[in-house]
Structure formats: structure tokens, C-alpha cells
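Objective 1.3, modelling of assemblies. Example input:
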Amino acid sequence: MTTPLVVDTTVDAPHDRLVRAKDASRSIAQLTSSDKARALESIASALEGASERILAGNALDIERGRAEGLSDALIDRLRLDAQRVSGLASAVREVATLPDPIGQVIGGHRMPNGIALEHVRVPFGVVGAIYEARPNVTVDIAALALRAGNAVVLRGGSAARESNTVLIDVMRRALTDAGIDPEAVQTVDDFGRDGAKALMQGRGFVDVLVPRGSAALIETVVTESTVPVIETGAGVVHIVLDETAPLEWARDIVVNAKVQRPSVCNAVETLLVLRQAAPQLIPVVASALQSEGVAIHGDDMVAGLVSNVIPATDDDWAAEYLGLEIAIKVVDTLDEALEHIRRYSTGHTESIITTDSRSAERFLAEVDSAVVMVNASTRFTDGAEFGFGAEVGISTQKLHSRGPMGLAELTSTKWLARGSGQTRG
Amino acid sequence: MTTPLVVDTTVDAPHDRLVRAKDASRSIAQLTSSDKARALESIASALEGASERILAGNALDIERGRAEGLSDALIDRLRLDAQRVSGLASAVREVATLPDPIGQVIGGHRMPNGIALEHVRVPFGVVGAIYEARPNVTVDIAALALRAGNAVVLRGGSAARESNTVLIDVMRRALTDAGIDPEAVQTVDDFGRDGAKALMQGRGFVDVLVPRGSAALIETVVTESTVPVIETGAGVVHIVLDETAPLEWARDIVVNAKVQRPSVCNAVETLLVLRQAAPQLIPVVASALQSEGVAIHGDDMVAGLVSNVIPATDDDWAAEYLGLEIAIKVVDTLDEALEHIRRYSTGHTESIITTDSRSAERFLAEVDSAVVMVNASTRFTDGAEFGFGAEVGISTQKLHSRGPMGLAELTSTKWLARGSGQTRG
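Predicted structure (C-alpha cells):
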């Protein structure tokens, strides 16, 4: 027995994990709502009970991350502590309380010939996820997938591999304890790049793949996958101010949208101000931003109205800063603002501050983004704010789901037809 | 000027067609329901008026097809005559009368802070279609896409290229006559393989791609596309007969499902009969099939009950005959039937004939197909039968749409948020 590892790798190829997930998905799909809630409670308790083990795994990741020179920001995203582990467990319990989308009847009617047609929500089957540093995604996605009756195959960032190994082991044991097939939670992390590839190419075994992370990660997944993908994309988010915008709304909304949590996809990145409104609005809004530590990239007119403006380049209009920076541009007309948004928006969220109802309705109709707002902060594009109770991600694609995704977005549908001998004439 | 063709190709690359479709999609998206109906009426009249030109183009395709040795069946699919052209125009007029899905409010609520949230149907933008021989698909898909407010980029089969060139020209002129941007209907046929490639790789310009045709075509599109695809797949459709199946229902439904139109995806291909029911049901059902000219591939038990049975191989269980052939297998239990379906079904439609409600409900719950039936012919899986008024195709994927697709499946959604200065706390 000199080659046990080689034998193991042969027997347990990444594709086998997909097969096992698919097999398990059949029993998971048939679980009742309370079975699923019980499974999640078991996972939550197990996470709490395994806190020390989880933190020990995480400490190894942090240590390796430091040795490999990861930035402090990345180390922070990677780090778990007792409170964060307890937060993970609470999040799982919250998911357990969400209404079960499975079995919901979303349509149907009796056909003229008497066949009763019912359109019902069913699980996808196997949900794949490819993501980066934060180990909490491992638990979040698994809990959401299970709540919606799916098995899940996870591929986390290599920076979090020790943390994820422990988290997945804890969840699988918890499922076993609850009498539920542990094969419903799989990882392909141990196969490195081959694992990701198997997941992306797992047609017939993986029903949907959700990438979460950088634009580069998402681009890779979209390009290499033969499995259907839901893009959860970047947010080059715009706010437009016109000459009817109340000064306080403009200032408060822009500051909130930029500063309240600058590192997330629904934070504003570019401010477009109608020329007529610029002299009144820009100095006030810019000074409010600057007093919050926001660096301003602006065009010539902005530079003429505000001090300490960094000249904006084309790169700034396309930038997702994800930090305390903003680009400000003066435009001549609403048309020019709409054209700028068409060119640079990633289709996530845009908002206009105006009291002119014609401009408001035109903006709502013509901006082709997942969420289009009037007189509200772009930070409201969020599953919890939308009342979904949990968020799988924010889809910037147009297929299947657009905008904040709740549990229902992790389901498919099927048609049930109950007849009494009908044939087609 | 010795190289005009080269210059033309450079200026008018396939990608330019996508750009023009995307540009046009913006005005098409803003058309009212009656504008769109008017555009379709203009197309219908133009098709009627251009009947001779269309038939002349079609005659060239038929001639070339014969010279290239196309089968009679393919020639028949390719062929247009005056009646079929008139049928094309009628189909366009029918699409014009369908309720407009755009602007439909499918959800929404007032957020606790007062923001009014509305979830509305919007056009995809640009719908791509890659399909094979039948030129009527060119008109059908364009009409459906336009009705739902989309621009369309078409890539038809090379066998129908003269017919499609004329049809597209007629539709574009009709749009111009109706005062609507003709760039909303594009073809990439003239670029051959490069055209298909541009369409499949047109991320950011093509919002969804619908392949219609053979399993090989669909496989290619799924594999090569970076644009989201809706698979309209093959149908290896099963009917299960158990020991409680009324003899007449079993016979009538199986014969109808096989014989009424054998060349389509919702025709049954495999019959699974519970062993206990086999002696009673198989002779009657098989003889009814044989009297309709259906060849029977069967296992040993079937061969013992019926004459002229061709021994079935594994290939038969996976076969989509699309003709007057059927595979019949005897299974010991419902579990074995479900396992066989899991292995060989393409997830299109399956039906069980039974009066045992436990078996019926188990079948409905456990079969993972777009449409699952009890006591009804699989031929009912159809957009018109389901009351959609038109059919884009039958999706066998789980993302976005599953089963027969109507106009609403050619739309996306967006969220509109109307506030009065709200910021996030």
C-alpha cells in the first residue's frame, strides 16, 4: 500500500462529488419544511459547538495569508472570531425561519378538456457556488440552498481553505445527526483548479452556478461554464441630480449612498449633475462628501466649484471604487445623463433625485438596470431591505432573476397535469 | 476601388449587427402595445404582398437542397408554398393579438420607510435565435420577440438562406413602413459560421439566446455561448402504466402520445409497464400501436406477449425516435420505473396512467421533468394547449423558464423604487 493518495484521487474525482450531490438532491427535494428547519437548527448548533475548531482552522488561514502578504483588508474579510461564528449560527437560524418556497403554487388553471394544470415551485436540484475570501459565504449559501430543498457544491477561495474545510465538515456531521443525507453539502476545494472546472462543466449534475466575487471571477465563470450561471455583478452605480432636486435630499442621499458602507456593490460610484443644477448643488454635496473623507474625481466644471478635485479620466467613469472615492460629472441634459449611464452602468442600480415627474418617469422607463430609483438611496438595493429575509446575491443579468435574489430565486418550477384519460384531438 | 467587398466586410462585421440591434432595442422597448401591434400588422401584410418574392427565394433553396441531396423530409420542412406564406402572415397577426406582457406589474409593496417598490416586466432587449431548416421560425421568432418589446438577431440554417434573406428583408421594410426602426430585426446569416460565433459571444449586446433544433445544435450553443441560453431540448418522453391503469386510458393515451404527431418533442418514446400489469395491458396497447404502423422495440417479456417485437438495446432506452417507433420495457416496481426515467429522461414530459392516488402523487413529486402528468397524453405539453397563445419553444432547463414558453418568457423584470428622500440607517 504505497500509493493510497493516488488511489483516493482516482476513486474520488471532482465529478464524483457532483454525482453524490445529485443523488442527495433527490431526498433533499422531498424533505418537508420542518425537516429542513430541523436540519438548519442542527447546523446552527453544530457551528456554535465547533467554535474552537473553526477558529483554529481560521487561524491557519490567517497565518498563511500573512505569510503570503495578503492585504489587511483581505485578512479582515478572512478572519473569524467567536462573535462572527456565533453570527454565522444566527444567520442559519434566520434562514430556517424563512417561508419555504417549495410547493408554492404560482399559477395554473383547468384546461378546457378538464385537465387540472398546476405550476409549482420545486428545488433546482444542485446549486453550485464559486466564491472568494469570506468563509461566511460557505455557510450562508449552504443554508439558503438547503432551505430551498437543494443540494450544494461549494468552491471557496483558496485563502480560506482551512476555515472552509472545517465549516463543511461541521455542516455535514450536523446533517448526519439530523438524519439527513450529508452528501447534500459538497466541496470541491480539495481539487484546486480541477474542482472549479468540474463544477463549471458539470452539465446534467449542477443545475445552476452562482459566482460571487470579483468581476474577474465572474467573467471566468461565465466564459468557462456550460452550466447555467446567475451573474451577481459589479455595481458602477449612478445618481443623477437635476435642477429640481431638493438640496437636502440630494446631499443626504448621495452621502448615504457613498458613505454608509462604501465597500459594497450598491454604493454610488458616479454622480451626474445637470448643468443648471451644478452651481447650487455641487458645492454643498461635495463638501458633505469631503467632510466624510470622500475623495472627489471631477470634470473641469466640478473642479471650478469645489477645491481638492482630482481630474477625472475615462477610467473614473468606469470605476467601481468600493471605497471613499466618487466621480462627479456635469451633463447638459437628462439625455446626456442617460447616455452616460448606458455607456458605463453595470445595470445594478441607478437613482435620480428630482421633483419633476416627467424626468422621474422617463428615468424609470429608460434606465435598463435591475433597480431604478427616484429620490432614494441606492443602498436600498438589498434582499433584506426588499423584504426577502435573506440574500443570495444581487443579479445583474436579465435571465431568471434580476436584482436582489431571495430564496425563491434558488428554485425552479414544474408543471403538474392531472387528467382523467384525455388525449389530444 | 478594387476591394469594395473587403471594405464592406470590415465595416459591417457581425458584431456591428449586434450593436445595431442593441441600439434599436431601446426604442422598441418604449413602444406602446398598439405600436407593436401595428408593426406586426405591417409585417403580416408585407409577407402576403411579397408572397411571390418569398416563394422565388424558397425555390432556390429547394433547388440547392435537392442538388446537395437533402432528404425528402428536410426538403418538406424547407418548402414554402402560397398557403404556408399566408399561414406565416396569420401567425404574425395572432401574435399581435396576444396580451402585451410589458409593463405588467408582477409584485411590489411599500417598504416600511415609505418607498414604493414595484416589480415590473420589461423586455430583455436583444433576443438571439439560432435554428435550423424551417424558414417559418424566422418569422415566428421575430414576431414573438417584437411583441415582447425586443430586438432580435437571427441565425437560420444555411439550407434556408435564400428564403430567410427575403423574409428578413420583407420584415425590415415593413417595420420602416410602420415608422419603426428596422434595425430591430437583424440577421447574421451572411457571415456564416462567424455570424453564429459573434451571436454566441455577444455578451453585453445579446441578452438571451434561444437555440432551436437538433440536440447537436443545442449542445454546441450551450458549450460555446457566453450569452445566457435557454435550452429548448429534446424529448425522450416516458409513459408509465401500472396495474390500476384503465385499459382504455392506457391504450388511447399511449396511441395518441405516439401517433398523433410522431415528429415532435412531446411524442412518447418509451413505455414502462409494471410487471403485474403487463399481461393485461401490453397486448392491447401494442396491437393498437402496431395497427397504426408503429414499430415496437421491446424487452424479452414484451417479445413474449406481442409478435414482431424488435429486441431493445440500451440505445433504444435513450432514443428520441421522432417517428413511428416506440420502446417498451417491463419494470418490477414503480421505483424501477422512476429510476429508469431518472437515467434516460431528458426532463421534458412524463406521464403515468394509474388510478392509485399514492402512485400518482409520488410520480408527480419525484419525477424531475418540466411537465409531469397523470392520466393525460404527453402531447398536451404545448404553449397553445397551456393557453399561452403562442410558443417560443419548450424549455428543458431549470433556469428562467421550464416547459412551454409563452411571450412572458421573452421578458425580464426590473424593480422600480419611488421614494421621497429616504436614506438607509
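Chain A has a mean pLDDT of 94.
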